[in-house]
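Posting for a labmate who doesn't have an account.
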Amino acid sequence: PVGAVTVDGKGKVVTAGLFASGSQLGLFEVGLETASDDDHLAGAATPGFRTADGFNPLSPHIAVDREEGVTSVLLAPGGGKLLSGQGFVVELASRLDALPDGSKPAALFGSFDGWTAEAFGGSRAGLLLGLREILDDARFYKAHVAAFDKGESRALKLSPTHLKALQ
């Protein structure tokens, strides 16, 4: 078409953009320096933790991944928790300083393994019990927000921010 740019691809390899799922790209800077880690939050269950809030669009690691063909990333929280937090999709093919939309999580991440079970009594059955309790609290909170806000509610396992994330 008129105005189209022609690129000579003769002898070159052309591939579709790569999607990095479960990545912490832009959530850490130096692997052995925990002060630069924004990929997790302390606690056994943190579903309200948003990886989008800790994403650094100017991380030098992004340029390296872009050079290798990564055009999209699903940011995943680290941690090994029953509910680790929310993941977000970031498009790397556009502006380098673009931030993910914090209002549109793509996934809720969590773990179901022996390490995670330690926080729930040491068994996978304890993990399931913890998950049932958290989901029951999320349903209860949704139905009783006004009572909770007035202090006229039973105690809940997680804060309202975490329970709202499960809605």
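Reply:
Got it, the structure tokens are right above this. The CA atoms of residues 149 and 160 lie 10 Å apart.
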